[in-house]
Design brief:
With 218 residues, this protein is an alpha/beta fold. The chain has helices at residues 28-38, 68-76, 95-103, 114-124, 138-148, 153-167, 182-197, 206-214; strands at residues 17-21, 42-44, 48-49, 64-65, 80-86, 89-94, 107-111, 128-134, 175-178. The longest helix is centred in the last third of the chain and has 16 residues, at 182-197. Bound molecules: adenosine-5'-triphosphate and ligand LQESDW3C.
């Protein structure tokens, strides 16, 4: 039996949960945007946060900006797959879009910290692909934070202070990349995603496909 392209086993697979973490300023947002532009099959997870909106950010696009009471309610109603305190605010990943994406075999990308990545492991281990981005140097990390122009001096000093804590979790990730050049880094991330999509364990239909391929006698 020949299969149509749409029915081919490698066209239907379990969705990936792609986690991108790094110290603040190493380039997660930049690489995430480039990845989303280059691959329409990936949906970005939009976190809820109690942090105030930065200039240029849009509610329900960059984050769901919520107050403390609403964040408390979301925790109470079990609406997060993970949440954490980061830089004095709370951030959490809403559960419903994750469940929906997995049901549809879609890939979803998370820009979250190591605390969030760790919380996803027990429930979603077989879907997870974890990637950590390192800056080429601490000097370059600070230069990027300053060049971004979104944070005060005080905030930048705090983010640099916390960068070492974040970097200390690098070994918990499956893939660790140095973001020297955005195009090079994007190519590496895309290679990881492509290879992870092809993993045998993500293709539930391979077993019946192989059975009909070689016939019942085998
Ligand atoms: N490879 C690179 N070379 C030079 N500049 C870069 C590179 N990658 C990102 N940048 C720049 O560094 C700054 C910080 O990047 P970005 O906002 O993507 O970091 P982030 O890790 O998402 O930070 P945060 O965790 O605070 O959201 C931006 O101005 C971005 O344009
Ligand atoms: N554990 C989680 N961490 C998150 C989430 N959304 C974002 N983040 C991380 O917070 C810091 C700061 O982000 P910023 O946009 O305020 O600069 C960064 O490391 C993000 O990865 C989340 O839902 N859960």
């Amino acid at each position: 039996m020949e299969l149509d392209d749409a029915d081919h086993p490698t066209r239907r697979r379990r969705g990936l949960l792609i986690v991108l973490s790094s110290p603040s300023g190493a380039g997660k947002t930049t690489i995430s945007r480039m990845l989303m532009e280059s691959d329409r099959d990936i949906t970005m997870s939009i976190s809820a946060t109690t942090r105030p909106k930065r200039p240029g950010e849009t509610d329900d696009v960059d984050y769901h900006f919520v107050d403390d009471a609403e964040f408390d309610r979301m925790i109470r109603d079990n609406e997060f797959v993970e949440w954490a305190h980061v830089f004095g605010y709370r951030y959490g990943t809403p559960k419903a879009p994750v469940k929906r994406a997995l049901r549809r075999g879609r890939d979803i990308l998370f820009d979250i910290d190591w605390q969030g990545a760790r919380q996803l492991v027990p429930d979603f281990k077989e879907h997870l692909v974890t990637i950590f981005l390192l800056p080429p140097s601490m000097e370059e990390l600070e230069r990027r934070l300053r060049a971004r122009g979104t944070d005060s001096d005080e905030v930048i000093v705090d983010r640099m202070r916390r960068a070492t804590d974040e970097i200390n979790h690098w070994a918990e990730y499956e893939y660790v990349l140095v973001n020297r050049d955005t195009d090079e880094c994007l190519t590496q991330v895309r290679s990881i995603v492509e290879a992870e999509r092809l993993r045998q364990a993500r293709h539930a239909e391979l077993d019946p496909f192989v059975r009909q391929l070689i016939g019942p006698a085998h």
